[in-house]
Design goal:
It contains nine helices and 31 strands.
Length: 529
């Protein structure tokens, strides 16, 4: 008996230790890619990072180039920057362009090099100085894919070169478009810098309002509020308060305008891979950084590292985290290293998990749409999910079902599921030959599409009509369809395909979320005829 008791205690202690380890591991979910042994790390690009040469005796800082495995590639570099697959480096007094394996593409014989676009750069030879505000000497246009000069631009005033500004604008628009996924994000403000701002608004690329920041702003003339883009657009974050005083409140939103978290005093530092958020502890006297996921759960607690450093690109008053954010520079005790955080899949709301899990098993929701469970669903995303449901029901794709129908082409959308749905009469455009694929779908619009799909699939209306308390808010063109989807009964429980949101309200103009859309697709596949 005594031996059994001792054995039981040993087993219990082992189990407790496993539980404790599991709990701790939840707060150390990172991989140390580069050990904490460098005096500084400035930039990461792919598997290359840049350090400052602490042994340099020159007053001009020199930099070294390393791979993650510790291999030193180059040292004594005066300037270095990354642009896509290219590295711009200045050694001695001239600058050139190199590939990632350090093959010379543009020889280092130029005083200045800047990117014109993704595959071209302009090099300035520096042979003569013209006048203040001018470039030095001749300008050459290089094709970076071949390393050959494609055009000699002659002398020019740098302030009159418009293609550089245009390329910057193009990149800015690209960041805006990627913000919020396909839904896009652009920012509208009525102030700038530290000037008083009374509101900020974010829109998708169709001009549809994503977020009005005014309700989050404090009142008074000293209000400061700002919205920023996020890493590959998955997040926006806002700040409001009296200047830099501790009465500020900071917010972080998804790129589609949904509030994730708010925090007093201390700001959110940066966004990592579109799935993690770095923030300061809100103790104004000890602002330690920590990492949380996109649902606000702490992943790396405060005190683990002294700092986190992200690559970012400055665009006017805003900072955009670059695509090179899969790895993070961290420091502890004055030494720097690099960590990586594991990939995570955002989860749906707790109430939606059982049914959403079934939609994943049935492959009703494309993988790229699963990033947005709790966020608004776009018109194109809804059509793509509907196509998967139709295939589950009929064994045929929606394109096969529409093979003999006349296809309508939209000027702003060429998605095959959208075009096939349009050919079947399930969806229509918004006028002027446009579909508005990235516009968020409302509940009444979803009801119309589902009702038309049910009719094509010959699904009967077996339930009783529902008189919603807000029926007067339903658009005339959607009244019959809202009634129809409430009468389509699904599964063993005979749940309506779409029903109210509580208090006998349908809320027809509210946006339909991705998880709500996915659940209706599942129900459509479970209709009892």
């Amino acid at each position: 008996m005594k031996n059994k008791t001792i054995l039981l205690c040993i087993i219990l202690a082992f189990v407790i230790s496993l539980v404790a380890y599991a709990t701790d591991s939840e707060h150390t979910a990172y991989e140390l890619i580069v050990p904490l042994e460098y005096d500084s790390i400035f930039t990461i690009s792919g598997d290359i990072f840049v350090t400052r040469d602490s042994k340099s005796l020159s007053y001009i800082p020199l930099y070294s180039l390393y791979r993650f495995d510790g291999t030193k590639l180059l040292s004594g570099i005066k300037e270095i920057s990354f642009s896509g697959d290219y590295i711009l480096m200045k050694q001695h007094e001239n600058i050139g362009v190199y590939s990632r394996d350090l093959t010379v593409i543009v020889p280092a014989i130029y005083k200045s090099v800047f990117m014109k676009d993704a595959t071209h750069c302009i090099a300035i030879d520096g042979k003569e100085f013209l006048r203040p505000g001018s470039w030095w000497g001749d300008m050459y246009l290089y094709d970076l894919t071949t390393g050959k000069i494609t055009g000699e631009l002659g002398y020019g005033n740098g302030f009159n070169i418009t293609d550089y500004n245009d390329s910057e604008k193009q990149l800015s628009e690209q960041w805006k478009y990627e913000a919020g996924g396909p839904a896009g994000v652009s920012i509208s403000m009525n102030g700038d810098g530290w000037e008083p701002i009374t509101y900020c608004k974010a829109y998708n690329d169709d001009g549809q309002l994503l977020l009005d920041f005014l309700p989050y702003c404090m009142t008074g003339d000293s209000v400061y509020s700002q919205l920023y883009y996020g890493c590959r657009g998955l997040f926006l974050y806002g700040y409001t308060g009296s200047g830099k005083s501790p009465d500020s409140m900071n917010y972080i939103f998804t790129g589609r305008g949904r509030l994730i978290a708010k925090q007093a005093h201390a700001p959110f530092l940066g966004l990592i891979g579109g799935k993690y958020i770095c923030a300061f502890d809100n103790n104004t006297f000890n602002m330690e950084p920590y990492i949380m996921d996109r649902d606000g759960n702490i992943v790396i607690p405060k005190g683990t590292f002294d700092s986190y450093v992200f690559n970012y690109t400055t665009n006017g008053e805003r900072c955009t985290i670059s695509d090179n954010d899969g790895h993070i520079v961290v420091s502890k005790g004055g030494k720097y290293g690099i960590i990586a955080l594991p990939d995570i899949q955002p989860e749906p709301s707790d109430w939606a998990k059982p049914e959403v899990t079934k939609t994943i098993i049935k492959n009703l929701v494309p993988e790229d749409i699963r990033l947005w469970w709790k966020d608004c669903c776009t018109r194109e995303e809804f059509c793509r999910m509907l196509s998967q449901s139709v295939k589950e029901i009929t064994g045929k794709t929606i394109q096969e079902l529409s093979a003999e129908a006349e296809v309508m082409n939209f000027s702003d959308c060429d998605d095959p599921d959208v075009l096939a749905s349009s050919a079947l009469g399930i969806v229509k455009g918004v006028g002027n030959n446009r579909f508005a694929p990235n516009r968020f779908i409302t509940r009444e619009q979803a009801a119309v599409m589902l009702s038309r799909a049910a009719a094509i699939l010959d699904i009967p209306l077996t339930g009783n009509s529902v008189s919603f308390a807000d029926k007067d808010r339903i658009s005339d063109w959607a009244i019959a369809e809202v009634d129809a989807v409430s009468r389509v009964l699904c599964g063993d429980t005979k749940t309506p395909l779409m029903q109210g949101v509580g208090a006998n309200l349908f809320k027809p103009q509210d946006y339909f979320t991705v998880e709500q859309s996915a659940i209706t697709m599942l129900r459509l596949t479970e209709v009892i005829k």
